[in-house]
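Suppose a classmate hands you a notebook page containing two proteins, each written out with its sequence and a corresponding row of structure tokens. How would you begin to make sense of it? This section walks through that situation. The first entry is reproduced here exactly as it would appear on such a page.
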Amino acid sequence: MRKEYDFSDSKKNPYTHLLKKQVTIRLGTEVITYFKELSRKMGIPYQNLINLYLKDCADAKKKPQLHWAR
């Protein structure tokens, strides 16, 4: 391994726009419990499962149906 490296000719990764971005989001405990149980049954991490579900919603352009109590 070298002591120093020369990065002056390096190029920016063209695929960085395809990567995931870390965000902080507050979810209800019942939501987290639901996705954790579902993830155990499906064999994938619950964060990936939530991401897949939200991506499906975004791709289908689903909008939440909110009914506020009066």
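The notebook's second entry, a different protein, reads as follows.
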Amino acid sequence: MMRGVCGSILEAIGGTPMVQLRSLVRPGMARVLVKIEGANPTGSKKDRMALEVIQSARRDGRLAPGQPVVEYTGGSTGTSLALVCSALGHPIFLVTSDAFSQEKRDQMAAFGAEIEIVSCPDGKITADLFRAMIARASEIAEERRAYWTDQLNNNDATRGYHSLGEEIWEQSDGQVDAYVESVGTAHGILGVAAALRRKRPEIEVVAVEPAESPVISEGRTGGHRIEGIGLGFLPPAWDGSAVDRVESVASADAHDMARRLAAIEGIFAGASSGANVAAALRVAERLGEGRTVVTTATDSGFKYVSTEVYRRAPEDSGGP
């Protein structure tokens, strides 16, 4: 159903479409549905989390009117927070890195954020990089007397994704056998799983992580190139009891699947979405015909045009 006029941009968050994959799913496999979270105002599912985090803090007095906000971010969380803060009148300071796309940094700045860059010469996403960003955000919060959203340790973030699970249930007519999602802060997969399992407790939940940094499945850390996931350490919110299986996807395979999604299915998304779909197709093959697997296209491919994900010749996009 088409929305009426929104009273503000914040009312445009959520209500994203869901699309069934056609060409990438072979006969005998389960149906695969992809929630297109790039349709949110900043082009990311993180809009849901940012809205809940800021509104909850305002409601209970942790965030005063006009008080600055600070956060560390790979880009999408920062952009979403900057959108919400712009709409609600809060200055925002964001700590990010040149390991993440220029588009994300430009987008954060466009929403009025003040940005500080932590340099990463080799361009790899590692635990040390995240720890450096977190430490600097903590310092800025003290210096500026800002409210630090501290996404890894903020339980409001998990609640922000309940709406995603509820929409998945409604749009699929309750036909969900498995939900597949990559793990960054872990709030996304846990929030969706909680909402879905309130409807159907036996739904299988599958976590996805970078093969080069299989912290969840093997306890081993390493550098990878899938923006938005794989911190290099277990996120504080992680709850292994909420997840049934873990699938590891290599950075190159995630990039390749993102390109194939665009070229074959017309879904333009980033590398974490490529990882989600690559893992979802494995689950669909295992479950077989007559079942339904749901995953998310986490954000828009427009955030990654300058990166190695899309900086490739057309003939490299692959085929079915």
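A careful reader of the second entry would note: Residues 273 and 297 are 5 Å apart (CA to CA).
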